[in-house]
Structure formats: structure tokens, C-alpha cells
Amino acid sequence: MLNSVQEIKSIFADHDDLFIQEEQFDQTALFLIGYKTLIDFTKSNLYIRQMAKMSSTVHELFTNLSDQLDVDTDQMIKAVVEGKLVLLSDKERNAVLEPVSRNLSRSIDQPKNESIILGPMDAFGEDIDINVGLLRKWLSTERLCHNSYLVGELAKRRISMLYIKGKAPNALIEKVDRHLKEIESDIETINDLNKHFGQRKFNPVSYLFSTEIPNQAIESLKKNRIVLFLDNYPFALVFPHLFLDMLSTVNDRNFPNGLSVMIRVLRGLGALATLILPALYVALTSVNPDVLKVDLALFISESREGIPLTPIIETLTMVVIVDLIIEAIVRLPKSVGPAITMVGGIILGQAMVEAKLVSNLLVIVITAMLIASSSVVGVQNSLYIRALKYPILILASVYGILGVFAGLTFVCIYLASLTSCDIPYMTFRIKGKGDSN
């Protein structure tokens, strides 16, 4: 094989979507090089064959195909990264061609699960090659490496791992590569992947942060992390999942710095409010009413007048009903969901207040908690934050305000104990290969 081909092959050794196809023309070996995730090879090769029939020599063929002839290796590498097709002959001649590109826009839709105010509206799809192509399109660099795996016992499934060479730590790349190569069972869900990465059985926090926005995945790659794609799954899985993922998105940077910081602070307050609002209501109405001003204590007492349920039973009932309504809205068809929202959120709540089963104040608290839980980034983050409010609520019903602070302390200790491949969940940034200690 040619020295130039060997050099390109060694540079792109970690790029499993690179193809090097050998063809014959006029007793001369020709090599076609490019990314199969960016180039429609079948149509491009057909075009070259048609041009070959109209050319009598290799030089004439190269001249008919391109104006960029006999470029150096750096230019060839740049052309491959940009999605062009490089044609080399065994006589050390080369040409850079404009190929028939893969259509990376036609089947790309807007995000369904993530709202974007300012930023690109593209979203990942089910085709893993299109997803990788989207990242190649937005991040044109030879340092973006791509490794693919075929895993499963009965149903083989493709998994792609992408990272930026020189950014992601080598130790992290090696551990993820080893975990993926050791997979022997079928991978049907994200939780199946979590188990292979060592997630504890009852841990509500996923090791993988899913996003359907290419811009968000690219930002994670630049922050020294790894992105995984699972075939037939329209999301990028960012590894490892960190605490700050629930507070910030890449599109926040489109706002002025002051507004961006304010938005992130509001998300943090939303997560905190989700954890403590129901617990504070129980603590202040049943265990520690003496910490309130007399006027406020009398107001709360009047709001609960005639209610037969204890504060903890009253609050647990409302919290569970709200969580059930949210799950019902998610699972039901869109044509039925708004009706369930109306019945569950307004009619049922009003009926419970008029029947003296819950107080007006509790309805306000639960509504505020529901809004606050929706302010964090990522559905999976909202779910686990809502799950962690229950132990704090139980502690508050027994120990009052002290139980609220004890519950928050336990939650912080628990989150701080979580690690993904020895990277703490509560870390602010991952040190890259080139970072100094």
C-alpha cells in the first residue's frame, strides 16, 4: 500500500467510520478515502466510474474529477475531516473531490424533549451514522475520534464512542473501552449500560446524561467527556453524568453573562425547593409551629381547620397524586394528556380543597414544588430530585426542622459519594489529558 495511504490510515486509526476503498483503472491502483458517515460512498463511486469511462488516462481522470491535485498530506487530512473524498493513485498522485454527501438534514427534526430558546434546532435521530455525522458536521477536526462496538448475545446492537483526542483523559477512555468490550448480554435500555458501568442497583442517579441536541453533546466533548450513541436511540449519552448538568446548558451562553448566571441560580433554587418545600410544610404545621410568627401560625392553623388528615398523610397524598398525574401525562397520547391535566390538576385539586381533605396552603406548596422540579435540565434529573424529597419528608414529619436539615445533609453526602469510573458526581470539571495538576 502507498506510503500516503499508510500515513492516513495510522492518523485515523481510531476512526472506525473511515473507509479506504481500492479500485482499478487503466492498470493503476486507486484508493478512495473518506468518512462513510459524511459521504454516500455508493453514489460517489458510481460517479467516479462514469467519469473513468470518459477518460483515457489516470491524469485525464484526475483532471476531470477535481481542480485540487497533488496536495500535501495535511491538506488531504483536512479534506477528509471536512467530508470530502480523497482519491490517490499508486503513482503518488492525489486529488480532492466533492463527493455525493450523506443527507444529514432531511430526516433531522426539532428536539421533542428539550426546549431551545436561542440555538440550533437540529436533533439526533435513530440512525447512528447520521448522529455521528452531525457531530462531524459541527466539529470538523481530526482529533474527534470514533470507536464502534457490536454488543449483545441474541440481538446484536451497535454502540459508538466519541471523544476528542487530547481532551478526554486516557484513563477514562480506556475504562469505557474495556467496559464496552466486556458486554456480552443484550443492551435494550440505558439502565443496561449503567449496570455495565458499575451503577449500584437502587441508585436513582444515572451514570449517563442523555441529550438530543448536537450542540450540547459537542460542548460535553469539549469539556473532556465521552459521548456514546446507541443504535436506534435518538439521544447522545454523555459519560460521566455530573451534578452541574442539571443546572446549565450550552444554550445558556447565548444570553449575557448576568442572565446566564441568574438562570443557573434559579435552577439551583428550583432543585432545592423541590426537596424541602413539602418537608417544610409538614415540619412547620405539625412539629415546629412555634418557629413561626403568631400571625403566620394562626393563618396556617385556620387553613387546616376541619381537615381530618394529619399533615404528613395530607402531604404524602398530594405528592403521590401529583407524581401519578405527571407519569400519566407522559405515558398517555397527546390528544388525551391535556384532558388529564385539566381533570387532575384543577378539578381534582379544587374538589379536595372543597371536601376539606387538604388545605389551600398545601395546594400552593405542591404547585410551587411541581414548577420548581421542572426547572432543572434533563428529565432524568427532575425524576431523581423528586424521588429524593420523600426521605426528607419522612424525616421532617418526625424531627421537624432538624429533620429537614438532616435530610438535606444526607442527600448531599449521598450525592458526593457517587462516582463514575472514579470521577466524583459532584466534581465541577474533568481534568483533560493536557491539564496540569
From TrEMBL:
Name assigned to this protein: Spore germination protein
Pfam families named among the record's database cross-references: GerA
Native source species: Paenibacillus violae
Annotated family: Belongs to the GerABKA family.
Keywords from the named record: Membrane, Transmembrane, Transmembrane helix
Membrane spanning stretches: 265-287, 307-329, 336-353, 359-379, 391-416
